[in-house]
Design brief:
The chain is mostly helical and about 280 residues long. It has 16 helices and no strands.
């Protein structure tokens, strides 16, 4: 079972819940998030990626720009790119930008990929509220990198670092981006069944918290709850309940319209295939 299947959904959240777009041009960022046509966004984003690349060339040590590049490349690869080799290249670039951005933000973060996990965890324990955007973007880029490098066990082993990053974001500001860190943790804890070391009940708690923090307006949280938890534990009633709530909900929500449009599309596909799964 490929890890990519479990990390794909939250990558969309990076693109559609504020990401780096708003850091450069708030009007453009809001226009993207309010758009209800995925095809339009897919067609338009590559030009924006090239613009961000150009800005990074001019300001190579500006953390905000680097994190913007990481967010956008990771999200574009995770949502719109089907070619595995191309997606891997894009995610490599996203992670490279994110690691550079973290280093530019705080010199203590310059060796995050090389230090031992206990030292990594100790460093995160010192992080504060101002570090949350960097930690979240780094965690998302790292997850995207792993999803397209599942044949590399060294990359897969780095999932523990993604988990630690998102857990620290939750500890510092669980409301950040509509509770999206909880959504990541829900996915990460439902990769495996309990018999193989997974933590499905913790996954359920995280998904429910993500739904609650958005007051039910983040429809993608419900879709991932159904796809990754309900299917893992073979709970058809919960699965269908969450997906029907998505289809019955109003998708036009400030800063969530495009994400909710995608979620409704996915909910219909999951319901159509439910009889074959359960």
């Amino acid at each position: 079972m490929r890890i990519a299947k479990y990390l794909m959904g939250p990558m969309l959240a990076l693109l559609l819940t504020g990401c780096g777009v708003a850091r450069l041009d708030d009007s453009l960022g809001r226009a993207v998030m309010q758009n209800n046509d995925l095809a339009t966004v897919e067609a338009g984003l590559p030009s924006y990626l090239l613009m961000v690349d150009g800005l990074i060339v001019n300001w190579p040590e500006r953390s905000g720009l680097l994190m913007t590049g990481a967010d956008l490349y990771g999200a574009y690869a995770g949502v719109f790119v089907d070619d595995e080799a191309r997606a891997a290249r894009l995610n490599e670039k996203a992670l490279a930008y994110a690691l550079r951005g973290a280093c530019a933000h705080d010199g203590d973060y310059c060796d995050l990929r090389d230090i031992e996990v206990p030292a990594f965890e100790a460093l995160l324990d010192e992080a504060g509220q101002d570090d949350v955007p960097v930690l979240f973007s780094l965690g998302g880029a790292w997850a995207g990198y792993i999803q397209t490098h599942t044949e590399d066990w060294n990359a897969v082993a780095e999932l523990s670092r993604v988990r630690l990053l998102m857990e620290r974001v939750v500890a510092l500001d669980e409301d950040y981006r509509y509770g999206q860190a909880h959504m990541y943790l829900g996915v990460l804890n439902s990769i495996l069944p309990a018999s193989l070391g997974g933590r499905p009940e913790q996954a359920r708690d995280h998904f429910e918290r993500a739904v609650a923090l958005s007051e039910g307006r983040n429809l993608l949280a419900r879709v991932l709850f159904a796809e990754h938890y309900a299917r893992l534990v073979f709970d058809r009633e919960l699965h269908d309940e969450q997906l029907h709530q998505v289809l019955d909900a109003e998708p036009d929500v400030p800063d969530l319209t495009l994400q909710n449009t995608y979620a409704r599309q996915q909910a219909r596909q999951l319901l159509d295939g439910a009889d074959d799964y359960f």
